[in-house]
Amino acid sequence: MLSFIKNIFKQDDHSSRRQANDRLRVVLAHDRAGTSSELMETIQEEIIQVIAKHMDIAGKPEVNFIREGRHSALDISIPIKGR
Amino acid sequence: MEKNQSKGEAIVVTSGKGGVGKTTTVANLSTSLAEMGYKVAVMDLDIGLKKLDLILGLENRVIYDIVQVIEGECTLKQALVKDKRFPGLSMLPAAQTRNKDDITPEQVQQVCESLKEEFDYVFLDCPAGIEQGFKNAIAAADKAIVVTNPEISAVRDADRIIGMLESAQYNDINLLVNRVQNDMVKSGNMMSIEDLTEHLCINLLGIVPEDKNVLISTNKGEPIILNQRSQAAQAFNNIAHRISGEDVPFLQLEDVSFWSKLRGLGRSFLPTR
Ligand SMILES: Nc1ncnc2c1ncn2[C@@H]1O[C@H](COP(=O)(O)OP(=O)(O)OP(=O)(O)O)[C@@H](O)[C@H]1O
Ligand SMILES: [Mg+2]
Question: Please, which residues have CB within 8 angstroms of residue A5's CB and are 6 or more apart in sequence?
Fold first, then answer.
């Protein structure tokens, strides 16, 4: 419900306010975790390599920071091929 | 307004990024609390680049400074400059010709503790940055006000500062958003208060609008809180009341955009044909 309201209240996509918020979200997550985008890419690649050794990956894996309060978590989603 | 039962409260005003309004905040909150009848001391810890004396209009009355107090060249009492317009307000000046690493956090703490014996509130005006001057300023305070502007680089620095305050065991960290331009927020070109609290996740203490009167009163060396027509003055007065424990609602600033959003909400329910 809350996210429903949030979506309606969302700023339009092109506003510079929206861009500032998007950029800040990424930069703060990295600052807090002490990582760079480059490191994130390395992590992503290495994780995928490990998974790929044992399973068939279908499609593009996604690695994101999710935020809860002032803490960040790594959210990794890797689509696996069914049998 | 009974306060002085025990010891005073020390509040550090900090930001990371320079020029966001720390000194303006210290000057106005301290005069406002003094006007309310509290005993207030301000410590200028921007050693080498002092400005608080100018903004308060007390620059001609400075004789000694905090470094001289620490080095024993004068007493704390001798160094305190009393504001004649606000009998409850005293300033401990920074030294202009010395460096931030001429004093240590422990020494600042000692001076601050002595001030807390006598004053209800002690404000510490922190220099920009995260180096020695910042460390000196945060060692002594009981709570923190983090000042920021609705601008990405200021918010990023604020976030860094909040992290450092948390590591220094602060559990009372409050956000003051300065220089908000509501028309820009409404036109989608400035981050809103909700955006900032969502990014920074700390308690919102106050919202101060962009206001030309801030510069005008700085020019004159007069605290802005005396100007009844200034929106920034009203905001600082409200924040001072909140610090003293009163529950003061936030300025109308945000309500306007809330109603315009509601109108937008109504529109989004209309069929799209
Ligand atoms: N709400 C406001 N509206 C308009 N101008 C403002 C406002 N707040 C601060 N200013 C202006 O911004 C400038 C910087 O303010 P101030 O000196 O208080 O910042 P500071 O954070 O203490 O800076 P420093 O990091 O150099 O110590 C001043 O010229 C001041 O007049
Ligand atoms: Mg300053």
Answer: none
- For A68, which residue in chain B has the nearest alpha carbon? B201
Q: Which residues contact B261 (CB under 8 A, 6 or more apart)?
A: A9
Q: Establish how many alpha carbons lie within 13 A of residue A70's alpha carbon, considering only the half-sphere containing its beta carbon.
A: 17
pTM for this entry: 0.84
Chain A residues near residue B163 by CB distance under 8 angstroms: 32, 70
Q: In chain A, where are the structural domains located?
A: 16-77
Question: CATH no. for residue B64?
Answer: 3.40.50.300
Q: What letter does residue B207 receive in the DSSP assignment?
A: E
B145-185: pLDDT as tens digits:
999 999 999 999 999 999 999 999 999 999 999 999 999 99
Asked if A19 is an interface residue toward chain B (Cβ–Cβ < 8 A), one would say no
Strand partners, B204: B175
Query: What is the rounded distance in angstroms from the CA atom of residue B206 to the CA atom of residue B147?
Result: 10
Contact B174, B204 (CB under 8 A): yes
As a whole number of angstroms, the distance between CA B223 and CA B43 comes to 17
ipTM of the complex as predicted = 0.80
Q: Centre a 10 Å sphere on the Cβ of residue B123 and count the other Cβ atoms it contains.
A: 29
Contact state of B152 with A9 under an 8 Å Cβ cutoff: no
Cβ atoms B224, B232 nearer than 8 A: yes
pLDDT tens-digit map of B80-104: 999 999 999 999 999 989 999 899 9
Task: List all residues whose CB is within 6 A of at least one atom of ligand 1.
Answer: B 15, 18-24, 46, 51, 127-128, 178-179, 208, 210-211, 214-215, 218, 232
In angstroms, the CA B228 to CA B100 distance is 37
Nearest by CB to A31, which of B160, B192, B195? B160
Is A33 touching B (CB cutoff 8 A)?
no
| Residue ranges of chain B whose pLDDT lies below 50 | 254-273
Q: Give the whole-angstrom CA distance, residue B39 versus residue B32.
A: 11
By residue range, what is the domain housing residue B35?
9-263
Ligand 1, atom 25: closest residue by C-alpha: B18
Residue with tokens 């600042």: B108
Spatial separation of the C-alpha atoms in residues B59 and B69, rounded to whole Å: 18
